[in-house]
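#help-structures
NK: newbie question, is this the right format to request a structure? protein is protein acetyllysine N-acetyltransferase
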Amino acid sequence: MPDAAADHKPRLAVLTGAGISAPSGLPVYRGGDGMWDRNPDIEALTTASRWHGKAQQAWGHWNELRRAASVARPNPAHEALAAAEAHFDVHIATQNIDGLHGRAGSGNVAELHGNVFHTRCSGKACHARHGAWFDDDLHESVPTCPHCGRIARLDVVLFGEQLPARKMRASIDAARHADVWIAIGTSGTVYPAAGLIDFCRPDTVRVLVNAQPWTDNASAFEQEVLGDAAAVLGDTLRELHAAVLR
């Protein structure tokens, strides 16, 4: 375990995926009963080059995501990460768009794939100028941008789009400086987020908390905790903090 000076908190960098929100009742995307496995047509509605011609259907799908996220509540895994800020300097990079980390009280969260409660203009120049806006409405008709009148869209990263550069840089920097790097509830197959582990120092403690092992990069972890994140994460974080301070 790396040494941690007594006068500062050890640095904890976290990557989370759909598995951490599954105990809150939100669906996972891949594997078994995953959303994309059950309905392959969703791919067209979540692809940057294809959704615009199916805007009404896309908003129907986005409304479903927004409705589900609005009734979901942070579970003990989200709460454990928020509580960990008392003992760690925490940076969370999440692939989730549900906003549950922030609602649990975590203060340093990079939402790599966006947020389901933000809407933006579909025009790149207009979005770059004005940004996204908070929006928790369920739209029966396709909304429009209040600035230019173009079709509005959910402010999430679609297939074929790049992750926000500033948020990715912050997450890479967190991985490079981490005493502990932990992946929670993610398959490790979605890049570039899954590649954050490769930026860790050789002495960084790397831990997986997931329902099953990673098929790729599995050898990179010193510890695997297999199970429901809501049930096991709190104890895992307490054990990691004690070990880092030894």
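mod (FA): yep, format's fine, and the tokens are attached above. The two ends are 8 Å apart (CA to CA).
NK: thank you!
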